[in-house]
Amino acid sequence: KLLLSIRGNQSLCSSSSSQTGRATEGPCNTPKPSMLDFVNKAKWDAWNALGSLPKETARQNYVDLVCSLSPSSESSSQVKPAAANEKQPGSENIIVTSQDGITKIMFNRPTKKNAITTSMYKEIIHALKAASTDNSAITVITGNGDYYSSGNDLTNFTDVRPTSIEETAKNGSILLRDFVDAFIDFPKPLVAVVNGPAVGIVVTLLGLFDVVYASDKVNFNTPLSPLDRSSKQKLNKETIEPAAEMLILGRKLTAGEACARGLVTEVFPESTFQKEVWTRLKAYAKLPTNSLRISKELIRSNEKEKLHAVNAEECTVLQGRWLSEECMNALMNFVSRKSKL
């Protein structure tokens, strides 16, 4: 259609004719211009491609082309400019938006303290894969409401038929492995904006983020070690020992203590937390995207293989723990305490 439009555009044809001595209609019978005569060669190639197409037909094709490019056409509706704050496909429990060079993945179950269901695990995996190839420079995970996340929704464990416990444990192990692998392999800077209390797996995942910002009112806790623990980030002595009291004994840490133990990058006052953090992230998002990717790859590439190995091993161990009597009793005791409250 673009070739046909040249025949319909009279000014262009006239210009071609004056420069090359050609007519504006009929087959092209003039010598082909030199390879170095770029402009006239392009015109000659375009005219030659038209063959003996009548002028009126070419004009109609030109009109059709222009109409096809108008805003009301079907083709234009398939290519739309990106909105300033574009909402990505997702669910009401996981909201994904892109704005100012930042893809934000937000837990959105504020009335349930942003507890993570099985379907949310899958949605987060999908969201991370999509964010890894979109146009954003960095990706942020945060929570809506008072909590960052309270960890696993206990219905993940309680809504299981007795005849399918082993199958559920196996499938859960595979899902958890894929979930953590998505964090390990994520190629862009990954930032956790911890806006409220964080419990269980969302705490032990923090070592897989590149940056963790927290409000000074936040606390971190891993109370159900056989249910929603994972310790993929504990790969060196400097990190294991300071966090062991929380990971092994379930001690709750303040934001300041978590920062001192290397789980948090920086702590901000609650009153200015959102403003300070997002101002800084918007500035970071203006940095060259490829340079950010390359920098992260240089820093993280050497540990990926070990992280994947630890993840696979831990998921296998967790599968066995989920089937143990000790785990079942811990779950029932926890549910009983919650029901009394």
TrEMBL record:
InterPro entries: Acyl-CoA-binding_protein, Acyl-CoA-binding_sf, ClpP/crotonase-like_dom_sf, ECH/Chromodomain_protein, Enoyl-CoA_hydra/iso, Enoyl-CoA_hydra_C, FERM/acyl-CoA-bd_prot_sf. It holds the Pfam family ACBP. Its main location: other. CDD domains: crotonase-like (cd06558). Residues 1-75 form the ACB domain. Residues 1-31, 71-90 are annotated as: Disordered. Its EC number is 5.3.3.8. It catalyses: (3E)-nonenoyl-CoA = (2E)-nonenoyl-CoA; a (3Z)-enoyl-CoA = a 4-saturated (2E)-enoyl-CoA; a (3E)-enoyl-CoA = a 4-saturated (2E)-enoyl-CoA. One of its GO terms (molecular function) is delta(3)-delta(2)-enoyl-CoA isomerase activity. Transmembrane segments: none annotated. Keywords: Isomerase, Peroxisome. One of its GO terms (cellular component) is peroxisome. It is found in: Peroxisome. PANTHER family: ENOYL-COA DELTA ISOMERASE 2, PTHR43684. This is Delta(3)-Delta(2)-enoyl-CoA isomerase. It comes from Marmota marmota marmota. The gene is ECI2.
